[in-house]
Amino acid sequence: MRPATVSSLLALTALASVPVSVPYYASPFTKPSQAHNTQMAQQTTQGAPREIDFPYYSLRDGYSSLLQLVSDSPVSLPIEVTIRSSSGRNILKKDMNISSQEKLMIELQSLVASLNGESEDDFQEGSISVRYASDTRPIMGQITVTNPYLNLIFESRLAINDPGDSNIPAVLEGIWWGLKPGRQTKVMVANTSNSSVTADVSLTFRGQRHLGALISFAPYETKVLSIRELLAKFNADTEFVSEGGITITGHSPSPVLIASGMTADLNSGFSTTMHFPPAGTPQTSTLLAPGVPIGTPSAESPFALAGTFTPHVVVRNLSSSPQTATVSVEYPTASGTQLITLDPINLAAYATKDVALDSTVQDRLPLPLPYCSIQVKNSGSPGSAVAEISSVAHNQDLVVDSKLGDPTDRLSGSGINPWHLDDQTESVLFLANEGDAPARVAFQIQAQRTIYHLTDLKLNPHETRAIDIRKLRDTQKPDMFGNTIPARATDGSLFWVKMDRVPMIGRTLVFSSHKGISSNFDCSCTLHCPQGYLALSVAPSSTTMTINGTQQFTATERWGDCSGLIYYYDQTTSSTWTSNSSACTVGNNGLGSSGLATGVAPGSATIKASYTDDVPHWSVALQDCVDNYIQRSASGTANVVAVPTNFRQTSTSDLGNGDVHFTYAWGSTSGNLADLSACTVGEIVTYPGGNPYHWQSPPFPANSTSNPTVSDVAATAGAGVDDNFLYPSSTFVRPYSAASFTATQFFRYKCTNINGGNYVNLLGPLSITRSVQQNTNGTWRFTVTKPTNGQATINALP
Length: 798
Hints:
Mean pLDDT is 89; it is low at 3-45 and 525-529. The strands form 15 sheets. A 6-stranded antiparallel β-sheet has the order 5-4-7-2-10-11, with helices on one face. The chain has a 6-stranded antiparallel β-sheet with strand order 55-52-57-58-59-60, with no helix packed on it. Strands 12, 14, 15, 16 and 18 form a 5-stranded antiparallel β-sheet that branches. It is built from 5 helices and 60 strands. 4% of the residues lie in helices and 52% in strands.
C-alpha cells in the first residue's frame, strides 16, 4: 500500500482381647523409656516437638490397618512412626519423611514385616504414635481398620499429645448403640505414657451408672474391652441392653488414656465407629453432622444407588439431671435450605436414647433428597450431652457414620483430609455453613504433585454443600493457574479453611456401597483465629487496551492457613471497582460485570478493587476471636490507546495497461487521526510459491515478486492507494498459453503501544487473480481481478 495524496478403611472381624500375659522380647525391639522422650526432644532442631497418637490397630483375623497421614506444611517434614505392641513392652520405630501436602499411606502389616516384627503375636494389635517437630500442627491422620471379607470397617482417630499441650480428655465418654443379638461392641483403650496407670471403667444403661473394677495399664499397653462382658459382670441381660454409655477415668497426673470403639455384626457387615470426644467443652449445646444420607437418595446425590438409609441419632445425657435433646433436619431445596424440627427427646439422668429417623420423620420431608444435615441441641449446659449419628442402609451392610461437631468451635473451620477414588469408591467433601451470612471457603486439592485451587467457593447461609471429588477431577476445568486434577489420579489430599467468621463445619467421606464400607475424616487445622489475609492482587497489573475495547480485571486474595499453606480466593465480584480517569470505565455488580474495564478515550487510568474484610484477632481475656474490620484494596493500570478503525474501500478503477487501482480510507477509534501516531496501516500479499515468486513466463512477463510483499504507511494519513499492476515488466512473452496464478492479500495495522506491536487484520483475505486466456477469435487477453469490483484488462495481447 502507498499513501494517498491526501493525509489449569477399611474393617474388623472378631476383635480379640489382649492376652493376660505376653512374653517380653528384647532385641531387636526397643523397650520404651523416659529417655526416648528426652532423646526425641533433643533431636528436634526446628520447631516444637509434636506427637499424635492413635489408640488401636489390628492385624488379626483377616483385619488390615492403614495409617493415613496428611501434611499441610509448606515444607517436607521428617517423622518418626512408632508401633507399640499390645502389651506395650515392645516397640518398632521407622523414620520417614512426609512431603508438603502429601497423603502418606502406611500399610501397617507391611511396615511391621519390614521391621521384622510380623512373627511376634504381640504386634498383631496395639497402638501407634507419630512424632515430628514443627511450630504448628500441620500433620493430621487416621487409622482405618478393615476386614474386606466381612465388609467391616472402623476408625482409630488421632489424639494430640504434644509435650505440655494435649487434647486427651481426663475422662473418656463414649456411646454404644445397636447392640443386638449377633453383634459385638469393643472398646480399645491405649496408654500413651511410659508409666503404669489405672482407670475406673463404668457403664451407664437404663438410666443407671455402674462402676466396674479398676483396670491397670502397663506403659504403652493397649487393652480391648467387650461391652457384653462388662454388662454380664453387672448381671445385665445383654440381649436387651442395645444402647448405653461407657466412661473411662484414668488416674494419672495428666490424661494419658485414649480410646476408640466399634460395634460389628460379622454376618450382615454392619459396623460403626464409637467416638470419644477430645478434651474441651463445646462452646454451644448445638452440634451438627453434615452430609447425612436419608431415605433413598436422589439421582444427583453422592449416595445415589448406595441403598435406602435410616439415620440414627443416639444421644447420651452425661449429667445427673434430666434434660431434653431437640433434633432438626436441614435439607436443600431449589429455594434454599429448609428445616424441620422434631419433638424433643426426653433424657432422664444418665440416659441414652437411640432415635431412628424412620418413615415417621421421612414422610415430612420432600424425598428424595441428595442428603441432609442433622442438628442436635440439648437443653443442658454445653458438654452435658454427647451424641452420635449414623445412617444405616436397609440391608444393614453399609453404615455412614457422621461425627457431630460444634460449628462455632474455632477449630472446626478447616480441614486436612485424604481422599481416594477407584471403580467402587467415592470421596465427597461436605461443608455446612450454619451462619446467617455467606461463607467464603479457600480450597485446594493435591494429586500427583499437582495443586488444584477452587477460588470461588462460597456457601449461602445454612447451606450444606457436597464437593464430589470424582466430578471435580473429571470436569478437567483449569484453575487460575491453568492446572487440572490429573485425569487418572486416584489418591490425594484436600485442604479447606473458612475465610469468614461464621459457624462452619466439614468432613470428608470416603465410601464404597459395593464393599459396604465408609470412612469419615474430619481432622481440622488447630488454630485460634483464621490465619487469613496475606495479600490482595489485581490482574493484570498493567494492560493496554483500545477505545471501546474491554479488559477483565480480577482481584485475588492470597491466604495462609495455620501451617503456612497458601490458598487463593477470587474477590472480583465481592469488590467495589473504581477508575480514577475518564480514559475508561469499570463495572460493578448491577452496573455491568465486576472488574470489566471499557476504554473510552486515550489516556491512563488506575483500576482499583476494594472491599471490607474481617480480620479477627485472638483475645486472651475473652478467649475468643474478636472482629476487626479493615479495608482491603489493590489496583492495576489501564492504558487506553486509539487504533485504526472503519477501514473501507472508497473507489476502484482500471488505469490501463493491466493496472487495477483501489483507494482506501480509515478512521481512528478516538475520532482523531493524530492519535494514531504509534500506528501504521498496510498490506501483506502472499504468492503460491517460493521467495521470490517467479511469474510463469511465457506467457506472463518475466517478473519476480517478493513473497510475501509487505508495505505500510503512517496511520495518521487516514487514506491510501493500492495498485495491482505489471511490474517491472509489462511485456508478455510468446508463445501465449492459458495460465493463471492467485495471490492472497490482507490489509492490517500495527501499533507499537498495543498487542505487543503485532499486526491486527482489518480486511481480508482478498484474492488477486491474474490470468491469460484465449478469446474466441484466437487472440489472447490478460485480466487481473480483486474484490470488490476490481478488474483491469489488456485485450488483446500484442
